[in-house]
Amino acid sequence: MLNKYPIWKNLMVVIVLIIGGFYALPNIFGEDPAVQVAGSRFAEVNVSTQTQLNDLLASNGIDVKKSELANDQLLFRLAHADDQLKAKELISSQLGDKYTVALNLAPATPDWLADLGGAPMKLGLDLRGGVHFLMEVDMSEAIRKMEEAKVADFRSQLRKERIRYSGIKIKSRGIEIKFRNEEALSKAEFLLKRTNNEMVFTDVSTDSQQMLLAVMSEEYIKQVKNDAVSQNMTTIRNRVNQLGVAEPVVQRQGADRIIVELPGVQDTARAKEILGATASIELHMVDQNADVGRAVRGHVPAGSVLYYRRSGEPVVLKKKVILTGNYITDAQPSFDEYSRPQVSIGLDAKGGNIFSNATKDNVGKPMATLFIEYKDKGKRNPDGSVKLDKTAEVISVATIQQRLGRNFVINGLTQVESQELALLLRAGALIAPVSIVEERTIGPSLGAENIQNGLSAMIYGMAIVLVFMLIYYRAFGFIANLALSFNLIMVVAVMSMLSAVLTLPGIAGMVLTVGMAVDGNVLIYERIREELRAGRSVQQAIHEGYGNAFSTIADANITTFITALILFAIGTGAVKGFAVTLMIGIATSMFTSIVGTRAIVNALWGGKRIKKLSI
Q1: What is the mean pLDDT of residues 9-28?
Q2: 173-182, 270-279, 433-442, 449-458: range with highest mean pLDDT
Q3: Domain SecDF P1 head subdomain spans what residues (predicted)?
Q4: Burial of 364 (0-12, 13-18, 19+ CB in 10 A)
Q5: Does the pLDDT at position 470 exceed 80?
Q6: Comparing 182 with 436, which gets the higher pLDDT?
Q7: Is the pLDDT of residue 425 over 70?
Q8: Is the pLDDT of residue 399 over 80?
Q9: Between 374 and 47, the higher pLDDT residue
Q10: 101 with 36: CB under 8 angstroms?
Q11: What are phi and psi of 124, to 5 degrees?
Q12: How many CB atoms lie within 10 A of CB 320?
């Protein structure tokens, strides 16, 4: 029978609409003004902290709707937006500098809906407000670290081949390798050129010294810089995610800069602290022959460095780095057989080989774990670039009991310290320090104004389309308007399901989707009119109208979808936001304008004897 859907297809349409309505529903509940509390390094929030702060806020007349403790973070939902800043100041003064206190907006989704997986769309920086940073990667430090790694590689290769050298040092012009005779230089040059294709080796011997100069090639320097930015982007994204900032935007800009946007965060100082929590570890052997007392007085042996433990105890370590955090693939807090906290470390294959070879020759000797942080203190170098302060402390000294491989543990920590160190290491290590060269704060009031303007544009545009369709296509226009409404609901639902971020250009994409969604129905209805004028029956006209218009609608939407896909692939920021909503809108409009309206038309007129259509 013409114009009749099988039961399964009608059920499919109903189920899709129900699912779309369910996942779009959380967006109508809005957000609660909130204050978020998280422990910074080696400090934690717990039930006692929650009780203490609840009492503090209550005693100061601040109405707390709900306080939540989850994922080592506290969230206080407030009844009034005016109390948000006051609550943040009270909590900050109560807890001190050991905790991160930030303003936030928490979804007000009911618990029953959240338990079923419902969650609102994430809003971008331009709609929700937040902070924007432009960060610069210290490329000189990235190259220096790579040169240090090359020095260690050269030493290892020359020793393995038993080629004697008198010294390897990093100079301003490159890495200088000194030899005692010409024969050793010749053998070394042949070996190193064969095993280090990325380096350029030049014989720079003088009358008194046989010397080889190793310089990184231009291609390799470019690769090192590119890798430094790429790895730092991943690290920063992981850091922010691990520390609880929802939906951060981390994008590359130019050769050595990274854009970081943190929606919902209004406290620039605390946001800097979150980004400043960039840390790594280095493993060094303890210099057992050093006189610690003399080292404290300034007489540190050559090849060693003086560091301090958290307790203030001095420790003299060898300068040579056995292993860095770059090789860490996993870090989890755990307990040893005596229930003492520790951090279980997993290394990649290369790191495992390096660590195995290093510990093989040092069984029975003490090895120290050095915790390193780089922080922007607002200082400047003579050339105007941002100066980063490097802080390092020894967090563990342990005796190597046996040859170790890809897995080992760091002990001597408290439970809080082990959890925090595992979090920082798990998120990755910066291959080079970064500095903030630009910062910008977008207030929530501006975000609310952007939302209002965007919604107004969508409502006005949709109202005009709805009125036109009702007047021009009558009953079929009403069906098209239903499909258009369901289409917007499905766009919101899909974006909520995918945790996509809605930006102001994204709202523009939705406005465009309104026009495109109804365009498919216009093509179908005009084709039905043509079939009726050609003398077809009502049932034949409906059947031919939907069937013949499908290819035209598909062609138009597929080409637009491909364009949006290209915009998403090569665009950044605002362009991506527009492309995401446009692609989702195209996909949902294809369903609602073809399958959805056809189901309604079939239910109302399909298989019936009708002489005239209201079209």
Answers
A1: 92
A2: 173-182
A3: 305-432
A4: exposed
A5: yes
A6: 182
A7: no
A8: yes
A9: 47
A10: yes
A11: -75, 180
A12: 14
Angle, in degrees to the nearest 10, between helices 218-242 and 139-160: 110
241 vs 453: CA distance, rounded Å: 30
Neighbour-count burial for 148-169, b at 16+ CB within 10 Å, e otherwise: bebbeebeebbeeeebebeebe
8 Å CB contact between 155 and 322 = no
Q: DSSP assignment, residue 286? A: B
Assigned token pair, 63 = 């109405």
pLDDT > 70 in the chain, percent? 88
Domains and CATH numbers, the chain: 7-26+445-605 (1.20.1640.10), 31-108 (3.30.70.260), 140-218 (3.30.1360), 279-429 (3.30.1360.200)
pTM beyond 0.70: the answer is no
d(CA 184, CA 158): 10
- CB distance 491 to 588 below 8 Å: yes
For residues 523-545, give the mean pLDDT: 89
Which two three-digit tokens encode residue 415? 């439970």
Distance (Å) of CA 168 to CA 152, 409, 532: 9, 32, 90
Q: Which of 123-127, 239-243, 335-339, 361-365 has the lowest mean pLDDT?
A: 239-243
pLDDT value at 385 more than 60: no
- Which pairs from 311-315 meet CB under 8 Å and 24+ separation? 315/286, 315/368, 315/394, 315/397
Alpha carbons 9 and 205: distance in angstroms, whole number: 83
Tens digits of per-residue pLDDT, 203-251? 999 888 899 999 999 988 888 888 888 878 877 777 676 555 656 778 8
Burial class (CB in 10 A: 0-12, 13-18, 19+), 116: exposed
Q: Which two tokens stand for residue 252?
A: 């590359």
Is the pLDDT at 386 greater than 60? The verdict is no
Which residue in the block uniquely carries the two structure tokens 């974006």? Answer: 495
Q: DSSP for 354-377, please give it.
A: HHHHHHHT-TTSEEEEEEEEEEEE
* C-alpha–C-alpha distance, residues 4 and 53, integer Å: 63
pLDDT average, residue stretch 544-568: 89
- Could you tell me which residues are beta bridge partners of residue 346? 330, 407
Q: Helices (H), strands (E): how many in the chain?
A: 17, 23
Q: Which amino acid is at 145?
A: K
Over 60: is that where the pLDDT of 445 sits? yes
Contact between 565 and 582 under an 8 Å Cβ cutoff? The reply is no
493: confidence class by pLDDT, cuts 50, 70, 90: very high
Cα separation, 285 vs 481, in Å, equals 73
- Angstrom distance (rounded) from CA 239 to CA 100: 14
Asked whether the beta carbons of 92 and 227 are under 8 A apart, the reply is no
Distances (CA, A) of 445 to 84, 87, 449, 451: 14, 19, 6, 10
Q: Could you give the CA distance from residue 413 to residue 342 in angstroms, rounded to a whole number?
A: 6
Which alpha helices (H) appear in 161-217, and where do they start and end? 182-195
- Please, which pLDDT band fits residue 1 given cuts at 50, 70 and 90? low
Which residues 6+ apart lie within 8 Å of 10 measured at CB? 599, 603
Q: How far is CA 517 from CA 245, 344, 415, 528, 587, in A?
A: 35, 54, 56, 18, 10
CA–CA distance, 102 with 271 (Å, rounded to integer): 8
